[in-house]
Amino acid sequence: VVPYQGRLFFKQYIPQKIQNYGVKLFKLCSDNGYSWNIRIYAEKEKVTGSASVPTNIVINLSKDLLNSGRIIIADNFYTSLDLTNILLENQIHYIGTLRSNRRGNPKEIVNKKLKKGEVFGLENERGVCVMKWRDKRDVHILSAKHTTETVDVQRRNGAVKKPQAIIEYNEGESSINRFVRSNV
């Protein structure tokens, strides 16, 4: 949300944000924070076809990148198996955190009980991997680029095994956070 106090018919009120009132933006950024494409939220999105509203937003923002072999990283509002399959058909890899209650999630992943540091994942025939990793809490992640491969990450308390997909997701999310901090 870009803060704005004036009069606009598409001004949004989002109580969870620090700046409650403003213009809601959907943004596609490069890894260094450069804005590739921006969409202003002006009215309720219409669902076209069988794709959900978040899926349509990502597809519309990334239509100039189709067939480029790039990677899109997004949070759990946008992430779904349907979106990942659509992007893979257009040679775009996708990495994103996944809501545990999202329709279409594999039940084996959601219901699996893990101990701290454990990873469990399933991969389909197209190479899309849905995994669950337990740190302080369960983290669900979907990746069209990674497997359940883990890497040792150094922390204060010692080394921890962390999935490569989560490491790359965290690096990618920092670029959009740079934009958010600069606009507050």
UniProtKB/TrEMBL annotation:
InterPro entries: PGBD. Signal peptide: none annotated. Pfam families: DDE_Tnp_1_7 (PF13843). Residues 2-178 form the PiggyBac transposable element-derived protein domain. PANTHER family: PIGGYBAC TRANSPOSABLE ELEMENT-DERIVED PROTEIN 4. This is DDE Tnp 1 7 domain containing protein. It comes from Asbolus verrucosus. The lineage of its organism: Eukaryota, Metazoa, Ecdysozoa, Arthropoda, Hexapoda.
